[in-house]
Amino acid sequence: MSTVMQVPTSTSQHSASTSRKKVTTLAFRQKKERGEPITMLTAYDYPTAMAIDKAGIDSILVGDSLAMVVLGYDNTLPVTMEEMLHHARAVARGAKTALLIGDMPFMSYQVSVEEAVRNAGRFLQQGGMDAVKLEGGRDRADAVRAIVGAGIPVMGHIGLTPQSVHQLGGFRAQGKNASAAKRLLEDARILEEAGAFSLVLESVPARLAEYISKHISIPTIGIGAGVGCDGQVLVTHDLLGLFDRFTPKFVKKYANLHDAMNKAFAEYIDDVETKRFPAPEHTVEMSDEEWETFLK
Ligand code: KIV
């Protein structure tokens, strides 16, 4: 992937994807330097990726949140490399401009550095992604270094790391006391030193996220980490109100598509049961002449 600087020039290109150039990891860094917020959302399928890309997003994450919001699991642990690649390819077909990031699923990078590099490579070779993301701080520095050494951009992810849900004792905010906060700052610096191009900060106190953002050179992307991060990410199904099971406190809902879908499906069922659908305008006809010939 070329890292030649190609930065969108406007922050309000809501349907101007044709004029936008491909966003690169370098553009991330330059946005941070200019103090311009970086925008990121998740996508798992072709039409959603297309709509997000068209709206002018900087980056699309094919998140392992797929496991919960699309596949219906209780956490992100069950999703596999094959499932992630399947969805990554659909997103890559739909989004031409955003920087595409594939989220490395549980056990695809923890067993060995070699496996981490191989699986990261699959996201680029077989998934159409431009970069990968993986969870963890100092324990993952070797993997990050090796993947970056193979020429693959890596986004780190610290704070609440959902793949460690059992170790963390649930989906809970991190870095809330001084020693945990110091450890998170150290982890951020270690990942920066290992070559990560950016860092997700999930569910950490806003003042800590802002402090980390100001004390590392790579852009931070916050989720539940306040406005002081260099960019923001949300799970698209949360933003759209598509995932009805629960909504984290840090989510802003921009629509309620679950209710809209429910209403549309109920109307369809009623239309079919009362024979209001299909109406003549939804029906194929043949001429009376052809019909008479058919009946003969
Ligand atoms: O999987 C995901 O969607 C994520 C975001 C919450 C950052 O990791």
Show the helix and strand layout.
Blueprint: H1 25-34, E1 38-42, H2 46-55, E2 59-62, H3 66-69, H4 81-94, E3 99-103, H5 113-125, E4 131-133, H6 141-149, E5 154-159, H7 165-168, H8 178-194, E6 198-202, H9 206-215, E7 220-223, E8 231-234, H10 236-239, H11 257-273, H12 288-295
Parallel strand pairs: 1-2, 1-8, 2-3, 3-4, 4-5, 5-6, 6-7, 7-8
The structure holds 3-methyl-2-oxobutanoic acid.
General description of the model:
It is a single chain. It is built from 12 helices and 8 strands. With 296 residues, the chain is α/β, with parallel strands linked by helices. It folds into 2 domains: 254 residues, Phosphoenolpyruvate-binding domains (TIM Barrel); 36 residues, no CATH class. The N terminus is likely disordered.
How would you concisely characterize the structure shown here?
The chain is of the alpha/beta class. The chain has helices spanning 25-34, 46-55, 66-69, 81-94, 113-125, 141-149, 165-168, 178-194, 206-215, 236-239, 257-273, 288-295, and strands at 38-42, 59-62, 99-103, 131-133, 154-159, 198-202, 220-223, 231-234.
Q: What is the domain tally?
A: 2
Give the class from helix and strand content and strand pairing: alpha/beta
User: CATH superfamily membership of the largest domain, which one?
Assistant: Phosphoenolpyruvate-binding domains
Mean pLDDT: 94
What characteristics describe this protein?
TIM Barrel, 8 strands, 12% strand, 296 residues, disordered N terminus, 12 helices, binds 3-methyl-2-oxobutanoic acid, alpha/beta
